[in-house]
């Protein structure tokens, strides 16, 4: 099949799917904005996105303006392919930046499959039901308005978890399929590491217990404050444990701190004098291949994300055979079965610190959980299985047009 992938940060969502589909003999072209390396077998058209000076408008009007501009720019690149005489059998698009808006106008006979991720609700912004301000309600409405339009244009939509699929209104449920992007086969086969060189100052031998916390950005929606507040208790109970925290200082899904700065700065100030910072190692960004090594050396990974958008890091960590202590919520219950392949936690930060410390004393149990996670993911989340499901859907969509 001829496939057109649309994502401003391509390969982005299609990082692993694109090469897997190429290996199965499909032709892929892509439309993007950012200059990022990707498989050389893919012909990519990149549009230039420079915004003019804009002032005196509502901030959400500026965002809608951005979507419109991106939609037009992406459509022009699609027209370039069409004028070459090339048309996709299926369009695969991420609708989050407006780029999918005009794809069906350029290619009216091509079905479109989208990855909409989540229908936003107050709880996905850390807001209690009924407590959202007018401005926050407007933000949610505008964000979901974009997805509403994308789903109207789409032939089908893919979500990686049942939880994420269930956030969408009933009117769109018939278009939604639950298929994860999948975890590469080699991660299931990599051996665990007994030692790890992280940097000249950070070397973990086989006699050191390592706890990890990883997120694109260190923010409340991913449970960073709860994790940090658990560390004084953990360090008090486990005087030799080493903690590795990977994540940026920005925000992806949460509001920035009201007092300015980053959430990391806020928590370090709040916990000043209570932490042994010599045993906590912060890294803002780590190359993916180095992250994989960290997964394989971690004795216990802490994943406290609110029910929201599932991180790729969690499925990769589980595939590497690392035991996970996760937050108790519907999304994480899809991957973690307490007492079988991990543990789910809810409660106080002090209780979290005690739970981590107790689990670290049970080395054999953690190894058992890690092995069980690998076995469980081998079925539903193995990349070959996921790509087969996706390919079947693509052939079905193409065959109906």
Plain-language structure description:
The protein is α/β, with parallel strands linked by helices and 401 residues long. The chain folds into 2 domains: 198 residues, Glycogen Phosphorylase B (Rossmann fold), CATH 3.40.50.2000; 196 residues, Rossmann fold (3-Layer(aba) Sandwich), CATH 3.40.50. It is built from 14 helices and 15 strands. The strands form 3 sheets. It has a 7-stranded parallel beta sheet with strand order 3-2-1-4-5-6-7, with helices on both faces. Strand 11, helix 8 and strand 12 form a beta-alpha-beta unit. It is globular and about 65 Å long.
Quick tags:
single chain, 401 residues, alpha/beta, Rossmann fold, 2 domains, seven-stranded parallel β-sheet, six-stranded parallel β-sheet, globular
Protein topology:
Layout: E1 2-6, H1 17-23, E2 27-32, E3 43-46, H2 59-83, E4 90-93, H3 103-106, E5 112-114, H4 134-153, E6 156-159, H5 162-166, E7 176-178, H6 185-189, E8 196-199, E9 202-204, E10 210-217, H7 224-237, E11 242-248, H8 263-270, E12 280-283, H9 288-297, E13 300-303, H10 312-319, E14 324-327, H11 330-333, E15 343-345, H12 349-360, H13 363-380, H14 383-399
Parallel strand pairs: 1-2, 1-4, 2-3, 4-5, 5-6, 6-7, 10-11, 10-13, 11-12, 13-14, 14-15
Antiparallel strand pairs: 8-9
Helix pairs in contact: 7-8, 7-12
